[in-house]
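To the wet lab folks,

You asked to see what we're planning to order before we commit. Fair enough. Below is the target structure as tokens, and below that is the sequence we designed to fit it. If anything looks off to you, flag it before the synthesis order goes out.
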């Protein structure tokens, strides 16, 4: 046991250090992320992602963050609108009028930020029926992480989970 303690302490320090001041480190490492995402070893990355995704979610508490729900809107696709308006027992048109607007790309998005469905406790009030974009965000277990490098880079500036996964991927 004695021999293991310094190793364990070192490991714990490493884990907490990675997320300490993560916003600053993410800003400083954007160029490295860009270089990495330009020519990733796709097979290697796809093999690493499931474990890194789990690891990042075990260290970051989304309920203490909610940066995504506070600042950005998911797309509300037709199937999302149908499901959520049914949940509220509203007509789809009423739901759209009350909560959504159409953005420049022709997608329905929330008409305000933070998201109207975000509670003061950072819980999503429509969690069971939330849009598919919300179910998939932050895409750290999908190939989209390397297929859409610009989006991944942007996400790494406000999502500590994306930051964490990228840091692990670029580590020597
Ligand atoms: S920004 Fe990332 S860490 Fe924060 S709540 Fe959203 S998914 Fe979770
Ligand atoms: S629907 Fe829920 S999970 Fe999606 S942005 Fe709004 S509060 Fe967040």
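Sequence we intend to order:
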């Amino acid at each position: 046991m004695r021999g293991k303690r310094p190793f364990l302490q070192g490991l714990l320090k490493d884990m907490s250090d990675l997320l300490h001041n993560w916003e600053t480190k993410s800003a400083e490492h954007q160029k490295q992320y860009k270089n990495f995402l330009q020519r990733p070893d796709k097979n290697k990355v796809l093999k690493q992602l499931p474990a890194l995704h789990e690891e990042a979610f075990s260290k970051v508490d989304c309920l203490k963050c909610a940066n995504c729900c506070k600042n950005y809107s998911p797309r509300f696709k037709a199937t999302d609108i149908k499901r959520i308006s049914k949940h509220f027992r509203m007509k789809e048109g009423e739901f759209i009028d009350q909560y959504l607007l159409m953005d420049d790309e022709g997608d329905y998005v929330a008409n305000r930020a933070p998201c109207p469905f975000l509670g003061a406790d950072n819980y999503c009030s429509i969690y069971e029926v939330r849009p598919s974009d919300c179910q998939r965000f932050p895409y750290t277990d999908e190939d989209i992480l390397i297929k859409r490098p610009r989006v991944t880079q942007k996400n790494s500036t406000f999502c500590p989970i994306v930051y964490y996964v990228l840091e692990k991927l670029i580590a020597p």
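Structural context that might help your review: Residues 145 and 152 are 6 Å apart (CA to CA). DSSP finds eleven helices and two strands in the chain.

Thanks,
Computational group
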